[in-house]
Every structure is written in C-alpha cells, then in structure tokens.
User: Fold Diguanylate cyclase from Novosphingobium endophyticum.
Amino acid sequence: MLRVYSCIAQDHNLLLVVVAGIICLLAVFTAFSASLRAAQIASRRAVYVVTAALVSGLGIWATHFIAMLAYEPGLTIAYDIPKTLLSALTAVVISGAGWTVALRERPAMAPLGGAIIGTGIAAMHYLGMSAVQLNGEILWDDNLVIVSGGLGVGLAACAVWLHRRKPKDPNFAASFLLALAICSLHFTGMAAVTIYPHQGIDVAPQSIDSQALAVIITLATLVMLGLGAGIVLFDRKLAANQLAEAQQSEALAAEILRGASERERLTAELKRQVEISKAALDNMAQGLSMYDADDRLVVINRRHAELYDLLDEPLEPGTPFAEVSKRMTSLGVVRRTVVSSLDTKVDEARRVVRHELHMPDGRIIEFHRCSLPGGGWVATHDDVTEARAANQQIAYLAAHDTLTGLPNRATFFSQLDVYAKRGQHFAVHTIDLDRFKEVNDTLGHPLGDEILKGAAARLRELTGKQDVVTRLGGDEFAVMQIDIASSTPAELAGRIVERLSEPFEFEGHTIVIGASVGISVAPTDGADAEELLKLSDLALYSAKNESRGTYRFFERGMDSRLCARRQLEEDLRVAIREGQFEVHYQPLLDASTGTIRCCEALVRWRHPSRGLVAPADFIATAEDSGLIIPIGEWVLRQACQDAATWPADVRVAVNVSPAQFKRGDLIAMTVSALSAAGLEPTRLELEITEAVLLHDETWVLSALKQLTALGVRIVMDDFGTGYSSLNYLRRFPFNKIKIDRSFVADLVDTPDAFSIIQATILLSQKLGMEVTAEGVETPEQMQILTDEGCTQIQGYHVSRPVPAAGIAGLLDVYNFECRSRAQSAG
Assistant:
C-alpha cells in the first residue's frame, strides 16, 4: 500500500486524480440507477441495461484516462488511437454482459455479474495501458498486476451483490464500492509500472496526444451525464404519471377528507416553517432581535444571547425594550452610562440607525436598527472588536515605518504641511548616516537594521514631545523641531551629530558611523512642506560634501553648488569614458642612500576646457558618487604598466579607496593588473587609510593577509589622524606607515608635532616597519627627519609629482649620481 500511495502522491497531479474520482462516482451512481429501473420495469429492461452498460463502461474508461492525464512520469505520453477506442468498447461490452447476468431472477447471480464487470474494468485498464506510447520502456510488477485484478473483480462483485440485496436509489454504499473497485484497480496497476526512458523508442505519428484525449474524455463524460439526466427526467415523468393516476383514484376520498387533512397539512407546514426559521435564526453569525410597534420583544436568536451573556437568563417574547435594557444593565452586561451615550449614525434614506456599544469587558458591539413597514423594528448585532483592532493595526502600519516604528514619509509630510500652512516657526532637520552603506554591505543587512533601529531610538531620546521624528527611507531620517524655544535648531543638530557618532555595539561588533544634518527653518526659508524638505536636503548635501559629521543650515547659493556638483559628476563620467585621466608620480627618497626606491602614483584629470584638475577638486565627488571605483582600477593598472618599465629595484605605490575595498574584488583586480603588466608583486605597494579598516575587521584582515602572501606591500597612509591607529598596527600586516603631512608642516615650530613624529619613528623601528614622512618641503624638515631615523622622504623638497615620462630623468639624477659617488668612494 505504501507503493500505491507513493504512486498517487508523487507521480500524479492530485487535482486531476480528484476529478477522475468525481467522474467515477457520477458514473456508478447513474449505472446503479439504470440497473434499478431495469429490475423494476420489465418492459424497458433492455433500454436500461444498455444505458447502464454505456454509463459504467464509459465511466470506467473516462476514469482511467483522466487518471492517465494526471500521471506525470516526466516523459511525453501519447496514445494509440485504435487501442484507445477498443479499450472504451471493451469496457462497454463487458459491463453490459455483467449487468445482464446481475439482473437475472436468482439473487446469487448478482456477485457473478459484478465479477464480470470487474473483469471488464481490468480488461479496459490493461488494454488502455497497451495504447500508451512514450520514449521509454515499461516494465510491470507481476504481483501488483495480480493484486489490482483481484481488487477490481472482488470489490465489483461485492458492490453489485450489495445493490441487489438492498435495492434503493441512490445506493451510496454500493456506488462507493464499485468506484473503489475502479480506482483501486487503476492506481494499484499504475504502481506496478516502472518506466525506463529510452530515446531510441519513438512515439508513433498517428498516435493521439493528451489534449485530443482530453476532448474525447469530455465527450464521453457528457454522454454519461446526458444518460444520467435522461434517467432523472424519465423518473420524474413516470412519477408524475403515477401521481396523476393516484390522484384520480383517490379523488372521491380526498374530497370527503379534504377539510380535516387540510387543517393537518397547514398545521404541519406551519410547524415545519417555524422549525426552519428557528434553525436559521439560531445559526446566524449575527445576533438578531425584533420588536413590535409597542417596543415589545418578538423574537431573539441564540447569537444575540451569546453576545450579551444572556444564555442563562433568556429573554421571553413580549418583554418591553425598556425592560430588556434594564435587565442587561442589572446583570452588568452593559454599563448604564454606555447605554445612554451610544455612538449613533442615522441613514435617513433607509431609516437605519447604527449603534455602537463599548462593553465593560472591552468588546465593541455594533448593531443596526431598521424600522419595519408595519411598525416595530429589527436589529442585527455584531462583535466588531477584532475587526476594529485589525483596522487600527492597518492604519498604524500605513502611517509608520515597520522597522523603526517611526512615522513614515507620508505621515511626516502631511504633518509638515499642516504646520507650514499655519505659518508657524519650526525647523526641519534632514539626517543622513555616514558610512552606513559600507557597514550594511560588509556586515550584512540584519546588523544594518539594528543600527537603523538604534539610530531611531537615539533620535527619539534627543527630541522633544512635540517634535516629530521620521525615517524617510534607507539610512535617511528627518526631525520636525516644533519646540524651538527650549532648544535652538543648532543645539539640537549638534546633539544629533554627537549622539549618532557614538559607537553602536551589536553582536560583538563595535561600529562607528556618524551623521550629517541639513537644516531649513520655516517660515524664513520657505512656507511649503515640499520646499522645506528640499532646502534641508540641500543643506545636508552641503554638510556631507564639506566634511561629514557636521550640520549646515540652508543658505542661498546652495542650489548653484548642487548644480555644479551634478555637472562635475557628469564630467567625471565623460572623463572615464573618454580616458581624460593620467597618472603622475611623486618619488620617495631613501633617507640613508639618497636614492629613489619608490614612486607614488597620483591621478590627474586633464579636462578639455578646464585644463589639469587637481585631485582635491574631484576625488571627494568621485568617492561619494562611486566613480572612484573605475578610476581607482584604471590608476592601478596604469601604474603597474608604467612601473614595469622602471629599474627592478624601484617600486610603485597606489592608493586604494574604501569603496574599492568594499566591492570585494580588490585581490582579483590586483592580480589581474600585475599579470597584465608583467610586474612582480613585490614591486607594488598599496596605501590604505583608516577608513578602510572601519569595515568588517575580520574580512579586511583576511584580504590584507592574502595580498601580503602574494608579495604585495601594505602601507598605512595618513598615520596619526585616526583614533585607533596603534591597535591597527598591532593587528594588521603593514610594511610601512606614512606620517601625515599635517605633522610635518608643524615639525619645526611645534614641539608637540616633533614629539609625535619622534614617537612614530621609534614605534616603527620597534615594529620592524619602514616610515615615510609626507609633505617635506624644506631642507630643515628633511634634516630633522633624517636625523631622527625616518626611512623615506616624500615632498616638494625632493620633487613635485611628474608625468610618467619624467620618472626616468629623476632616476638618472638621484640614482645615477648616487651610484657614481659610491663608485668614486670605492
């Protein structure tokens, strides 16, 4: 049985299996009805036997082939036309023989007739299976084939015997057994089938496909339904004739007893109608109560009693409405104060009054009272507590952000519009989380969601009760500051920047993101909600563009700066597309030998109309827009190609932005650039800033170790400007650190700067790292740095950045002269 169940559940379309079962039941019901008429009406026995044969035979055939349409072996199935038609004819002929035997006068012949019908089921099934054509080979389990035949013959014999023993219409038990015989034989037979796909076996071109077979099955089903409908119509006609004859024969007696019988009939009918009405009322989903013109109770249903907890104290018909109200109040079902203050809405056109009762237990009962044409009224009662709660939840979700619980953009905008139209004095703060996208991409969206919820909680803590905090979308928030008297917009914005810059602690991660704020003030800056949001966005853009981690008020002229920024982005895209960038190189002088051992690659933009554009004018925009990624990749590849033409002892240093690290393909890109240029990995230095290390430290550490394993040298740029650089030096595989130019600029005149540089050089020596000083512009600076043990010097004092073509000359000047001096000294 497990195999049969597996065959049905796994290899068949269950919906079509159900359809096959329904067709089968309709067929056997109709066949038994025809056989019963054949037994009752001798003059029309032959007609009914033929009808039973057609209906049962076609029903067996249709059931089989509908189930075959449900069969899904994974191969295209077609059917041989002659065998398919022969299987239908076989089912009809053998079923006719079975019904003929079963209807003989001796009851013992019934099981034999049923067995013959079962044989017809088996013959039809396996003849129908022989019509199946597919690109495969069918093997049979002989045991299941025998079991299927036994089930079909045995159950069919039992079904016909049961129908003959207890003839009635409809005979559900006999019909179910015969349908079970058909279905069990089919699905047990199908469980015996094993198909081995074989591309060498072709489907015959004259075969019939599944769609055509479905049409034939539909026609067969219509024939069965037509025969069944014919039997029903004939039965109705026969019953009508019999009734007419009975009425004529009993006309005289009926006339005599008409008076008494009419009263009895009306009494019974009235009783029946009362019972039907009572059943209908008691099974209504709503409570119902009806009162007459004198406000007396006429009828009340069970649901009404359940709603008002009156099952133990039922109300009797005739009770005045005032008494009903008094009784409900005395039982504590409804508070008197609530009854006297109903929430009422009147529809005059329909004369319907809507009442709403708030029950002591928290439920809300809504009932509609409608006047009746003849006086009185009827009311329906509904418990709408859950519906109201659901509506409130839907309304809440429609007005709030599902992640943070803050009002959403639409709600915020509507409130902002109300206050703007009143001409009130308030401020709009637009807030953007700095570096959130980097954290979200590297640490995952679940952690990003936690940061958003934490940021929302902090904003609620900082704002007043009247202020409105919202999440506009993504990592952008907004605050409508109503209470300006107790805290100025600048003070609130400062607190927001400070609070959101504090670290977030989640799942063992310490994450620092920061925030930028743009502020517009109504009605000074604008008196329209949309305009105020736009102006605060402009101010936010200015804050992010200048330094991030700060706030800016809207100022006139920001519009033009935004346009300039957008134009700059578009020009950068054109520059990338048309190859307007070039790489200049600034040498790093070895302090101990006076030779150039490395050159830093610095990108320059040669604009067709603006000339050479300095990096400070476009790098920040490129980073914010993501264009730094294609620019950085081009610089890396070009630098590797140029360095491949230099002497083998000269390295090239390339800056890597956080955006390039975030994308995750830096290792593959580096290997590709080195391979394309034919440059040894040991001649490449990658300079990274502390911003790169703000990503997932585990992932960054893994990437840097892989690069180091290749031979690439890792340099920490702008050392000393971050808050945890010492910790990074301990954990990450740096080969060199670069002292930021801000310390070198103050080296001579500021003792603190000298102390920091001195400590940094000593630290690098202890850690076995090289140290480079950036921005060296005077001989005095160079002398101090050399005396303190600085490894390399970089700055205008050595050389300004020069095009690639100028590197050969620099190498000749420094390295050739150095070698010449060494040879002379030797």
Remarks:
- Residues 265 and 434 are 88 Å apart (CA to CA).
- The first helix runs from residue 2 to 11.
